[in-house]
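Why run this: before we spend reagent on co-expression, it is cheaper to look at a predicted model of the complex and decide which construct boundaries make sense. The entries below are exactly what would go into the expression plan.
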Amino acid sequence: MAAYTTDQRQLLTGSTFAVLKPATTKQVSDIVRLAAHHGIGIVPQGGNTSYCGGATPDASGRQIIVSLERMDRIREIDPVSMSISVDAGVILKNAQDAAAAAGLLLPLSLGAEGSCRIGGNIGTNAGGLSVVRYGMTRDLLLGIEAVLADGTVVSDMRKLRKNNTGYDVKQCFVGSEGTLGIVTGAVLRLAPLPVRRATAWLTLAGGVPLAELLGLVRRESADLLTTFEFMAARSIALATEAMIDPSSLRAGPGGAVLVEFASSSRHLDLDELMEAVLAEAIESGWLEDALLAQSGSQRTAMWRLREAIPEGEKRRNGSVKHDISVPLSSIQRFLDLAGSQVRSFDADLELSVYGHVGDGNLHYNVLVPPDVDRLEFTKWIESSLSLQLYDTAAALGGTFSAEHGVGRFKKHLLERYGDVGRIAAMRRIKTAFDPADIMNAGAVVRPLGEKSAC
Amino acid sequence: MAAYTTDQRQLLTGSTFAVLKPATTKQVSDIVRLAAHHGIGIVPQGGNTSYCGGATPDASGRQIIVSLERMDRIREIDPVSMSISVDAGVILKNAQDAAAAAGLLLPLSLGAEGSCRIGGNIGTNAGGLSVVRYGMTRDLLLGIEAVLADGTVVSDMRKLRKNNTGYDVKQCFVGSEGTLGIVTGAVLRLAPLPVRRATAWLTLAGGVPLAELLGLVRRESADLLTTFEFMAARSIALATEAMIDPSSLRAGPGGAVLVEFASSSRHLDLDELMEAVLAEAIESGWLEDALLAQSGSQRTAMWRLREAIPEGEKRRNGSVKHDISVPLSSIQRFLDLAGSQVRSFDADLELSVYGHVGDGNLHYNVLVPPDVDRLEFTKWIESSLSLQLYDTAAALGGTFSAEHGVGRFKKHLLERYGDVGRIAAMRRIKTAFDPADIMNAGAVVRPLGEKSAC
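The model came back. Tokens follow.
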């Protein structure tokens, strides 16, 4: 059972008396009906890769887990309509591969793609590496099939880009983290498959205005920008240490940025375009150096370095993650303020800062010192420094969770930072869909009538 | 009062005892509180440009109209974060202009842009001419401020692309047509302002597979495609008749398509790209002719012709509109089936078919014969032929309302075609937000407990 009751980051171990693995939507509906009848709580689970304890049962042992892993069928790919219809238990990577085999791109890509499942991507409105170009899961979702808390099946597996026929019910499920029902199927939008890419590694000078650099690159790429990943020098060093075959790519005083353009057209010369854009950035004095990948293996090396950061953090002793987003115009201010906060909190703390800056999203991670207990340290930081950092983000119009969600770990943050009217509206939605609090109780928000909101 | 109580298409005249024009969110909240206390129904109104009677009160005279027209302030433009914050009563065109003045694009553009207001765009999830590239209103909405049916203010005016902190309450308001509360403010996403455009008029050969042509153009444009507007020959003829300075642009047997690419980068030669793409389309035998606009005035002429179609229909004697969307892979099949249905219904009927085919959206309009009463004819067609056409769209996985909404006119269609589970979920949402049915009662859907769902 351990794989189902312990969360991805091993911060929480819950308990359950049954893991159910339905194979059809009908079986999901039957399970929910029965559970509702007997007042048994349900924790829906996909790949169990939540960073916020959103997919793990509580310690009571009275919640059952409904795993979607057996519902892993790709139902249809329609290459003309550019859509893919899937069971919610399909692993993201498998959906990507199926789309690619049909000559199309499923433009959702994230670290966990080899194990996370589409239902979980919807439940958390997953973002990842290509949001700047293609948007988040919400932007890709065309149709849904879901089982409500009384067993009712919502069947709206449309392939339509436009369908304004009343409330778009599927939107409620996006980011609901299993608290409103169980998503059993989805139709996702596909994009033309890129046939050309240009990838560059930018070594940043000190004091580079990140948002302005992004603005320049985005504008002059004509929106062909698919990736703008910022990495601080420390993060790159950690990643390099973790690699068997270390990279020679380096960070400047301002860190580094991985930039990629992609085109589905053979009629554009992306290398030429990238060169022109980088020349402008160099002219502005923002770059110490810029390296344009000359081959597939150079491109792969750049990506491997970026992707090795989480592993680099893990090898050291892990990190306390802050999945922060601020308006682009406040990124520099956040980095300055947060940096001071960390220094005055404890001058010995080290940071690993990287993220999808193209979307205003920073993974602002505090490294766990090598010799301390990871769990203890995490609890300590999260109850002290983390709140200071979130306060700063909030004061700048930002958020404490850009793409990881709320789950069980961040409910106190929702209560602390959420607009009162918005939380009231959330509780109404929860009450409307799940008045008895059957669905993933303990995550995100509580129905009206219960003492605490979150 | 007539301007407030009669709908855009003059199909419905309601009655009211008061039109209220609040100037602040606080005033909106006070009005709603008072109305809720006294059980008085409210019809929120922006530009009153609904095609579905979504903004017009019923005949009872017991609903008040709350017009947002005095809340027309642009609150802030943040050029670095690429966002605009507005009062909900701002006219779309004014928001577009303000963005352009800051060197950015508000990529929402539709026929009514000179009079429709942002709150209404949100309430109907407005689409329009650039959806294929930039998405619908939902895709542009970053933040919201709204007054709920009890006067509670939801204040979530964020500029964040990513903010996964529980249910995204603002999504409920998108497409809600004023039935869940009153939107008073919004933050919209801006895009880099295009500095180059390439515009072409495609004269289609007979039997062109429209979706495949779109697929080719989209793919080979590298997603720089902003417009793909199909027009049947009859629609172009109507538009030409309505123009003071008639165009020489012509339709082929398969009609015509207006294609536009846009780039915010000076580093791309879009004319060259368009020529390469069109050469491929010509090679496929799909085009009789393709004209690439060589000047701003040629481009304007192409757009004027497209935009004159609704006026052309109006001058003749108007049309019965069917705002249909089908999966792209079924567009040809729909055109074939629907054409037969119209012919066997009445061989003398004429059609005007055009639309945003880039999004699978067809305005499939039946022309009102010159000598008949428009209202009578509309009622007759809508109670007979329209249902056949919608049946066909539905059978192909399509919808009876792609971008116009439901309002008061299309509730019977929602009841006829809506998935039972989805309508049940809609009613729960309505009940959660507005149990007493104060907000725009009579439009879209009814709370639980009432006899009819819609």
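The CA atoms of residues 445 and 451 of chain A lie 11 Å apart. Chain A is about 35% helix and 20% strand. Bring this page to Monday's planning discussion.
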